Amino acid sequence: LDKKGKHLKVAVYDFGGGTFDISILDIGEGVFEVVATNGDTHLGGDDIDQRIVEWLINEFKSETGIDLKQDRMALQRLKEAAEKAKKELSTLMETTISLPFIAADASGPKHLEKKLTRARLEAMSRDLIDRSIEICRKALEDAKLSPADIDEVILVGGQTRMPLIQEAVKNFFGKEPHKGINPDEVVAIGAAIQAAVLAGEIKDILLLDVTPLSLGVETLGGVFDVVIPRNTTIPTRKTKVYTTAEDNQTSVMVKVYQGERPIASQNRLLGQFELTGIPPAPRGVPQIEVTFDIDADGILHVSARDKATGRENKIKIHASSGLSEEEIQRMVKDAELHAEEDRRRKELIDLRNQADAFIYSVEKSMKELGDKISASDKSKLEELIKKLRESMAGEDASKIRADLDALQGEWTRISTELYKTTAGPTETPPQEAESGAQKKGGEDEGPEDTDYEVVE
């Protein structure tokens, strides 16, 4: 494929015995870049075998009244016969499954003999194939591509010899799968090529992998703030600027997580370290530069640096941190399953953070303005602040929003009156006082601004 002399978008459809994987690659000029991956560790040829086994058990039970589910020896024979029949139906329209002496009762031995057609097999397993196509759709979404953008489709795994799979892949991608590669040998060939690249024996090929899950840090309220998104090509380096959550905070704990859930504690903690020696200052003033750096071997280096003092601390996390493909897919599925619940919880945390930042700004302004604010206005503000803090202790987002709006409205009224009285601006309204640090200048690696705060 790489000898066609142009950049190609290639989909690798890998339907194995126990797992299914789809990878979207960008190939050109000796560079093989993984753009996106997805899969299901509980979908494979074994599931199709099991459908045939269940059909045989039900047919035999309806004819003889004998349930083969409890007979381990019979189940093993059924499994072997099912796999053999499945393979035969990739080239034949009909096959016969014959298992003599599969069971016995008072009347004597029982034999199983059933004809299985390709049409019946396809009806049994169509939903499994449809699941694989849906996963392909998600991988293309991650890669920001459509099926029409794919130039070639490569089939991997002996199960892809099944005509139904070839038809489903052809219909989805709108083109015939590439037939020049043996689906049973392709994995071994790929492994051999990668080994040669890593050993330095092949120098004109570059393999670029992607991060399987998002990487980030825990911020104020337990929110997971993503620094390197899932499916980012490695090696990569990303920087974000954070700030403190409390006045005179002299240290921050940087907790590094991996996962797709918006709440940090529901992801996998990879490591943590503390940055100390931050000069005492009001919250939101210190600037802490957090950098994630993944090298070509997949090793993650995380550093935190106080921009004022240059003080720095760092941690090294080895490749994949022991996560299996199954664990990665489980974490992705968990994120999809709990998406709505996580969204509501994150909204509640963000609202609490917003309310807390506004209270801080109002109290700071009240202290600085002193007697310029009347006693009655101070009393009203203190009452609204107390009410908002009580709401923040609960779980009712609408009540927090209503009480925050009330405090914002009252502060807007008071600050407007003060402005008119003094014929000029007195204080920057808290609405404009961001709790987070702003980036002061451009960075080589393009750090992003953020108004999140690192958890103490």
From TrEMBL:
Keywords: ATP-binding, Chaperone, Coiled coil, Nucleotide-binding, Phosphoprotein, Stress response. Residues 444-456 have a biased composition (Acidic residues). InterPro entries: ATPase_NBD, Heat_shock_70_CS, HSP70_C_sf, HSP70_peptide-bd_sf, Hsp_70_fam. Residues 417-456 are annotated as: Disordered. GO terms for molecular function: ATP binding; ATP-dependent protein folding chaperone. The keyword Cytoplasm does not apply. Residues 68-95 form a coiled coil. The keyword Nucleotide-binding applies. Belongs to the heat shock protein 70 family. PANTHER family: HEAT SHOCK PROTEIN 70KDA. This is Molecular chaperone DnaK.
